Amino acid sequence: MTVIKDSTCTFCGCVCDDIDVTVENNRIVEAKRACVLGKAWFLNHHADDRASCLIEGSPAPVEEGVERAARILTEARYPIVYGLSDTTSEAQRVAVGIADWIGGIVDTTTSVCHGPSGMAFQGVGEVTCSLGEIANRGDLIIFWGGNPAESHPRHFTKYSLMPKGLFVPNGRKDRTAVGIDVRNTKTAKAMDLFFQIKPRRDFEALWTLRALAKGLTLDAAQVKEDTGIELSRWEDLMKRMKAARFGVILFGMGLTMTRGKHLNSEALLSLARDMNAFTRFVVKPMRGHGNVTGADNVVSWTTGYPFGVNLTRGYPRFNPGEYTTADTLARGEADAALIIASDPMANFSQAARERLQSIPYIALDPKDTPTTRAATVTFTTATYGINVAGTVYRMDDVPIYLRPAFPSSHPSDFDVLSAISRRVQELAH
Amino acid sequence: MSDTFILIPGRTSKQGCGVSEGKFGKGYTAETTTLLVAPQDMTRLGLVKGDRVKVTSETGRTIEVAVAAAIGDELPSGMLFIAYGDLSSRLMEGDTHGSGMPTSKGIDVTMVKIA
Questions:
Q1: Which domains does chain A possess?
Q2: Percentages of chain B per state (helix, strand, coil), in multiples of 5
């Protein structure tokens, strides 16, 4: 039995790096301090006897899989590289290189997560901070369109609500928590104030607050009709926001996945920016997958754009809606794919799934998923953070190095992608 | 006679655990194939837990799914919730309106009980 102190959970964007993991016979039997999602993550990734490579469903040597994968990618006219949010940044970097070599598109799960926020960042900017600053300074915390009580269970205790910080010495008692959502979720029930707005009216609610921040007079009946909330409650919230010493808005996919999408995110980022005329205010998206923030970082520092990057002309082009995977598949444009650590066969539209099913593609995943089952070439890979070291970026863009618990018989994403990259380069010449 | 609702797919902790336990396992399957309905809508439509309904999007995409009542006041009348997964994605359109993101929340649907 071995205990790995301060191991890192890579299930969600909190990337908790204080988990004491107990390992017996290549199986994690305890994950101390992990949340319910973290426990499920650690306790369900163990050594297995599945083949490391399948070609058309039959076990094959990894080398053969690499050869087949490289040929699929180099022979395609419009190949896409997609996924990447649950692997190391080292592997992400290699994947971007492959997309460049094959003259394809590199896109990440960000495009169907906070991609609209990524678009808004480019238009408005992000008044940002680290989670440590929130823990030590935040005295007004607004959760908008998200349910971290279910999706990021330790966020409250580690970062945003409970911690006793330098400028909030009494922890929760020094903070006012506000929830804004269309559902009265577990998160909403943990708040001091809750605004249950009308569905698909985030944009109107955000602009109501922006108007109030500027001191404009609003029609109470119109505000109630637009948002479902009395104007007096919005006015009270704005007073609290202006009186805060360090205001924080943490937002989820309630904004980005609902119609309005990037315009919703843009309104929110603008509100946070506006508030800095009165006090310190920051805004952060709640990121889902363990290294989706790393994917944004790596794709940005290699291509200049955060996701959905077209490299077919030998230089990067960015145009969400044109080069993003949900679109290139649904429109029937992509003719081959390299899918890393994601499951579009379960999570994409029917049109996109049907296209993916009809083209040759390669899937890398530690788990058996609808996407790995339908792939031409499947690689079962070692799990990052549990079997594989490397770098991940927490949701606040802080890089954290992983301490794996035990080795795997399967190759890592980095190993497989590096081998595909080498062969692709040989074939490309 | 069908009723009009707004469907909000989203994450749940059970769905998240199910991803790690395995997407072909009972936990993930059960969580992602249960449609939550506001209790007052359950009563009004004569639905009980386990009844199956047909849900249809504005563009005619359909799924058949079992229902359960949402806990307490989590959902207002007229709103449905389902954990992200295969079924919720089947109701999405391929078009992303120039954003890369299909409209995955706030989907207009009709719901009718399957006799």
A1: 19-112+290-428 (3.40.50.740), 115-285 (3.40.228.10)
A2: 25, 35, 45
Q: Under an 8 A CB cutoff, do A183 and B81 touch?
A: yes
Predicted TM-score of the model (pTM): 0.96
Tell me which chain B residue has its CA closest to the CA of residue A186.
Answer: B74
Q: Which of B19, B72, B103 sits opposite A259 (nearest CB)?
A: B103
A261 vs B: CB within 8 A: yes
Cβ neighbour number for residue A269 with a 10 Å cutoff: 24
pLDDT classification of A363: cutoffs 50, 70, 90: very high
From the centroid of its chain, how far is CA B55?
8
Residues 156-215 of A with CB under 8 A from B: 182-185, 196, 199-200
* Other CB atoms within 10 Å distance of the CB of residue A115: 30
State phi, psi for A324 to the nearest 5 degrees.
-80, 150
Q: Report how far apart, in Å, the C-alpha atoms of A341 and of each of A82, A344, B94 are.
A: 9, 10, 21
Interface of A with B in 289-328 (CB under 8 A): 307-308, 320-322, 324-327
Span A192-246, pLDDT tens digits: 999 999 999 999 999 999 999 999 999 999 999 999 999 999 999 999 999 999 9
Among A11, A111, A367, whose Cβ lies nearest the Cβ of B100? A111
Domain coordinates of chain B in residue numbers? 3-113
The listed CATH number (3.30.2350.10, 2.40.40.20, 2.40.10.350, 1.10.8.420) that belongs to domain B3-113? 2.40.40.20
Q: What is the pLDDT of residues A24-69, one digit of tens each?
A: 998 999 999 999 999 999 999 887 789 999 999 999 999 999 999 9
The predicted complex's ipTM stands at: 0.94
β-bridge partners, B10? B83
| Rounded-to-10 torsion of CA A102, A104, A110, A115 | 150
Task: Quote the radius of gyration of chain B (alpha carbons, Å).
Answer: 14
